[in-house]
TrEMBL record:
SUPFAM superfamilies: Bet v1-like. Residues 1-139 form the Bet v I/Major latex protein domain. It comes from the Eukaryota. The lineage of its organism: Eukaryota, Viridiplantae, Streptophyta, Embryophyta, Tracheophyta. One of its GO terms (biological process) is defense response. Gene3D superfamilies: 3.30.530.20. This is Bet v I/Major latex protein domain-containing protein.
Amino acid sequence: MGKLVSQISIRWEGEVFQLFLSPNHFSNICPDIIHSVDLVASQWGSVDSIILWNYNIEIIEAVNYENKSIRYKVIEGDVMQVYNEFKICVDVSAINEEENLVTWTNEYDKKSEAMPEPTLILEAGLAMTKQIENHPIIFPN
């Protein structure tokens, strides 16, 4: 199983973790990265809820409210053409009252060693997180 981890610090006075529990706003916040996010089954933010992101369908495998961590597992879509298994974990920790550290972890099993590392997926997560900080509705200046 491969693993890529990256972190980004964002200035945010609100509850960043809530955005990842209910990601339906991401297509408005960063439409260049996320074209659409729809709830397929269950309810936003609950374990076993199934979410359709653009080209992939993910299930929330675990939510830890105390540690502000959420783990998604891709169950269908373009990613599954390249990987046998693909999981995304997002952890949010407060640095201070106005700043949060968001850690993205991709765990994956390539179908073939010739397949690329999922660096573009990790970079998209970081870019999406940065756009949260700059979104006028989410974070008014």
